[in-house]
Design brief:
Elements lengths: L7 H12 L4 E8 L2 E7 L6 H11 L8 E6 L10 E11 L2 E10 L2 E10 L2 H20 L5 E11 L2 E10 L4 E7 L4 H26 L1
Helix pairs in contact: 3-4
């Protein structure tokens, strides 16, 4: 029985049955000539056999319909170190402690740096704590040095800009919008600078 002979409700019911199959994201039915297009998550599994079974229950033989399956590509691995948190506490008078947490490969890395209080100094402490957490992720395979970090206003927007140097003296500049949490902004500025070179480096290191 050609699908064009089915009423609208029957067509919708068939589409719903097809999309209910595990791994099927979307079913598109072209009735004349009868073609069924399925977008699936993966190639594994008896998807086409199950589709044919559903069509048979609807009175459609194998010769009555063309079935076309396409598969979504596997997602690319995330290649950026993710910011988790940045905190600043004052353990005692005149001293500040910056703590930063980063995530890579499902694991959280934390580090901290202590120094004097003061807005400019505390920005630097947060940046240094971020770099230490990155060093833990890199396990000593790459080193970054903090040249400077500064908060200023540009184009009517407050930004935090950081300048880093790698061990081969390459300069890296990163920026982040300044928010109500300057220590978070400092950590994000560091990541903005370093993620440009770390993504492929860390991914390749995992494959070695």
């Amino acid at each position: 029985m050609p699908l064009s002979a089915l009423d609208v409700d029957a067509r919708e019911h068939l589409r719903s049955d097809l999309e209910a199959l595990e791994g099927v994201r979307r079913a598109v039915i072209d009735p004349d000539p009868l073609r069924i297009y399925l977008i699936c998550d993966r190639a594994e599994g008896p998807t086409e056999m199950l589709v044919r079974s559903i069509l048979a229950r609807s009175g459609l033989a194998a010769a009555d319909a063309e079935v076309h399956l396409s598969y979504l590509s596997a997602p690319e691995p995330r290649r950026r170190v993710r910011f988790v948190a940045a905190r600043l506490t004052t353990p005692r008078t005149g001293r500040a402690l910056a703590q930063v947490e980063l995530e890579w490969g499902g694991q959280t890395y934390r580090d901290e740096v202590e120094g004097e209080t003061g807005a400019a100094v505390e920005l630097r402490l947060a940046a240094q704590a971020t770099l230490r957490a990155l060093e833990a992720i890199l396990n000593g395979r790459m080193q970054f040095g903090l040249v400077g970090i500064k908060s200023f206003r540009a184009f009517d927007t407050d930004v935090v800009v950081v300048l880093l140097r790698t061990e081969n003296v390459h300069a890296l500049i990163g920026a982040s919008l300044a928010t109500g949490d300057p220590h978070r902004s400092a950590a994000l500025a560091v990541l903005n600078a370093t993620n440009r070179v770390l993504g492929n480096y860390l991914t390749n290191a995992e494959l070695d």
